[in-house]
Amino acid sequence: MKCPPRLKILLYIDICIILSLLTYKSYLFLFETDFHSINLKGIESVKKAAKGGKGLSFVVIGNIKNSIAVFDKKLVPLINHDKPDMLISLGNAVLDGAEDKYRILYRSLKKLKSPAILCIGDNEIADKGALRFYDHFGPFYFSFGVKNSYFIFLDTTGETSESWQRTWLLKELEASQQYKYRFVFMNRPPYQVDGASIMNLKPEFIKSSSYRRFLMQTFSKFHVSAVFSSTVEIFDKKNIEGVPYYITGGGGGMLSISDENSFYHYLKVYVNHDGVSFQLMKQPDIPRYRFIAFAESLWVYIHSLFYVSIVNFILVLTFLALIGALIYIKATKEVDYYRDFGAKKKKIPDDLKLTIAMFTNTYYPFVGGVSVSIKRLADSLRQLGHKVYIFAPRYREESPEDDQCTIRCRRLAYYKNYAITNIFSPAIEKKFMSLHIDIVHVHHPFWMGTRGLKLAKKYNIPVILTYHTRLEKYAHNIPLVGRLFENAAPHYLIRRFALKCDAIAAPTFTAKEYLRNIGVGKIIAIIPSGIEFKTYKDVTPDDLNALSQKYKSNDEIVLLSVSRLTKEKNLYFLLEGIKYIKEHSDIPFRCIIAGDGPEKSNLLQFIENNALAQHVTLASSLTQDKLSQYYLFSDIFIFASQSETQGMVLLEAMAGRCPVIAVRSSGIEDVIHNGINGFKTVPDISIWSKKIISLMHNPQLLHKMSENAFSFSQKFSEESIAAKVAKLYIKVLRRLKHNDCQK
């Protein structure tokens, strides 16, 4: 049955809409200016401009909520006309913590002629936005002094420990005594507010009564000049025990019609040697008739919401239409699932030498588990007499790993250090055809994997997929529609792709179990990545002595972790664990984290902020030869990632006689045998850290587990793994050639 012409036309129109929107979104993500540490830059700008003898003025505003009609179009011009030294946002400057909302806010802030400094609020941390706030603006709580004024910003979202912040606040207020004026800024006020937004059912004040009392008593004790907060969409002023409290929440979003103090506004503050003055700046264009005010504020809210999200909304709508059309075409397609009983059988020997094409989205010089696994497998297969060609992205720099069998494919662009290949280039197929390929082995279920799959189907060549990666853990790396891949979408994508392949190589039994659970009924062989034992044998005592001189100041226990420095590797959990060990153990230790990636600068900042520099070293990316030295040099391997399908570095560490302590996940379960070659724990910092401490305190157990780890690793040599893969290739070829349905 052919696809109806009208449906084809609809399909083409739908695809054009999607491509147009994706092009627009790609432009924003790839070419729009990125921004980091806005608060720090704003503070430096204010200090630099405040060297004269005049006073200091600043604007305080709350609840901007990505408002275009109010903040961007009306309040920003008024603020620019006032020429304050800085603008201070009291939180909820975004609708939620998604990246789109932060970028829309940044565009509005760029229109200001004064630097902006933002306090964190509940909306900023929503939708996993806390790390985005930290990246784009800076720490959740901080302080600075300008002229005769000291500014303190508190975190009332719960992201920062209350007890820690109490201690910090007291120290800050003690240190601020040299300043004449002290101002405190927070999102939630320390007292209950009568007015409340009809759009917000959460408590608008700090929930802990003891913390509220502590704050107000502390502010009174240190004679704070003013306390500013927002949360509620009203203006309110109170004087409690000699301290003026201001709530200014009219920077955007929807107003409350039940409160006459709910209107769009900001607060202008002027400070000089004579005192502090506060001036309420109302937005004059908002009518005071309640029904009209409600209607207009509702429109502003909806308009702001759709200004931020309309492209995503249309994308989802068109994707759904596309999926519907594709389902219809699929359902009406004529297929025949019966065997061809007329096919002639051919004898395929066990030792047949094959020509193999591997397709991958990442390869050297990009260092990662997939790159290492492919290189080892390809080299070992070649030693068995097979020809292996690797179709990989072309990077800016050349790789020493390249040879005539590495086919570099032209790239389209870079995104977060990933080279995106032009899979539509005809040069890929031209080269593929010239090689007379017997087996296609793809290492990703999309992009280059899809290109390899289509070429294999076109030329009737069997396809093997290695399931390397838990895609849902990498959703934040996907541009434009990353949030769609955090739940069911990646499982559907993997299932759909795997069902088109002839067999799947899963690194562990848990990975095979997962593939069966999502409905993959193809051949699934458990084949982990191999270990290159030769690099361990080449390590000399001088190599280990050099590392000892570099990292050990005494008889420290050396903890090692190896991974890409990215969010999905759960490295902040690991560092919190190191902090716990530091605070709960007196045994000297050093933690080395080997790897590189986009999160490196944030990790260094975290290490500095938490006084971990004496215990943690980032060793950057290392060659495999160097890594083997580090494995043999270290005492315990620690790992916190939950995004692995195998955790190849765990086996490498065991080959270097390191027992492993890791957080339980799919890639960990089959590798670590609790109490034998390591420990696997629930994702709880104290439990995980206590296992490390217990092993540090028990040298006999540490030695025993080290030997067990080494023994366990011996069955994973790259030669034996390559032989298993070659056996799978032959099995698939026989199945395809002879229509043999047995697994």
The CATH H-level superfamily of the largest domain is: Metallo-dependent phosphatases
- What can be said about the biggest beta sheet? 7 strands, parallel
CATH class of the largest domain: Alpha Beta
Find the CATH topology of the largest domain.
Purple Acid Phosphatase, chain A, domain 2
Please state the overall shape, judged from the principal axes of the Cα atoms. Answer: globular
Report the portion of residues in β strands.
Answer: 15-25%
Helix content: 40-55%
Structural class of the secondary elements? alpha/beta
Tally of separate helices: 23
Domain tally:
4
What is the level-2 CATH architecture name of the largest domain? 4-Layer Sandwich
Alpha carbon gap, first and last residue: 33 Å
* Mean pLDDT figure: 86
> Which residue ranges are poorly predicted, with pLDDT under 50 across at least 5 consecutive positions?
195-201, 299-308
Rg, please? 30 Å
What does this structure look like?
By secondary structure, this protein is an alpha/beta fold. It has four domains: 1-32 and 294-335, no CATH class; 56-286, Metallo-dependent phosphatases (Purple Acid Phosphatase, chain A, domain 2), CATH 3.60.21; 355-530 and 723-738, Rossmann fold, CATH 3.40.50; 534-716, Rossmann fold (3-Layer(aba) Sandwich), CATH 3.40.50. It contains 23 helices and 26 strands. The strands form five sheets. It has a seven-stranded parallel sheet with strand order 14-13-12-17-18-19-20, with helices on both faces. The protein has a six-stranded mixed sheet with strand order 4-5-6-7-9-8, with helices on both faces. Helix 10 (369-383) links the parallel strand 12 and strand 13 (387-393). Helix 10 crosses helix 23 (718-738), helix 16 crosses helix 19 and helix 17 (571-584) packs across helix 21. The chain is globular, with a radius of gyration of 30 Å. It starts with a helix and ends in a 5-residue tail after the last helix. Mean pLDDT is 86; it is low at 195-201 and 299-308.
